[in-house]
Every structure is written in C-alpha cells, then in structure tokens.
Amino acid sequence: MSALFRKIHHICIVVHDLERAEAYYASLGFGPFYDYPKKGAYAELDVPNPAASAAMRYRCADLDNMQLQLCAPGELDSPQRRFLDEQGEGVYHLGFEVPDIDAGVAAGRAVGLGIIARGKRVDGGGFCYFDTRSEAGTVLEIRTA
C-alpha cells in the first residue's frame, strides 16, 4: 500500500475561471501553462458522468518537482463541479505516479478504498481517483506516467 502514494505527480486545483486563475498563477512565476495532454482514447472508462468528464478543461504548468493543474469543471454534474459548488475553489486532488495502474487499483481496493472514477487506455496507462475525502481531506489519485 505504501508504494501507492510515494511519488507525487501533481496537485489539481478546481477553479471557477480558468483564464483568471492561470493569469494569477502566471503573475507569481508559474508557467508556461499548456492544455492537459489527453493521451488517446480509453479502452475502459468508469466515470460518474462521461459528458461532464469530456467537457472539463485543464491547464497545466510543470514545476521543478511536480505539476500544477488548474481544472474548470464546466456546468455538468461531476465530482469536481460538486466540490466547486459546495466548497469553492481549492485543491481537489493530489495525483501520484504508479508503475502499473491495475496493480495500484488492486492495492487501493485491498485496503478498502472506494473509487470515484477510473480509466485505462489501450497502451495500459490510466488513472484512478480514490474516494479518500472523508479521511484524507482530499481525493487521492494514482496514474501512470
């Protein structure tokens, strides 16, 4: 289990206005920002609302030791939209790299972690958002590089 959350990849902040948030972070020296690089279609995709997931907009900035992601969830119902409506802007999740998404999902399930959303691409890469909000104070995600 401990290997799941050892290598941080990114912090994701949910925002109302992506352009305003990006401009502010850029004024502090973050950047350059770029669109989140979608790496192709998913062979498996289990998300609460596929249309909402597809409509989300992300802007990313690579830092020396990790990535900052800004997420504008759009108006459709999604966990990110609900977070924004209920709690306002802030850290939605911490993303960690794992070498094998299937093994990571299995390890999370083995210790009783619920899953909010997950996806796996044809190349074997993917992601999994664990429902750790009540205990960790935020969502913990695993992903492959």
UniProtKB/TrEMBL annotation:
Q: Does the keyword Metal-binding apply?
A: yes
Give the domain of life.
Bacteria
Q: Does the keyword tRNA-binding apply?
A: no
Outline the extent of the VOC domain. 7-145
**A Pfam family per the record:** Glyoxalase_4
Identify the keywords attached in UniProt to this record, alphabetized: Metal-binding
UniProt-recorded name of the protein: VOC family protein
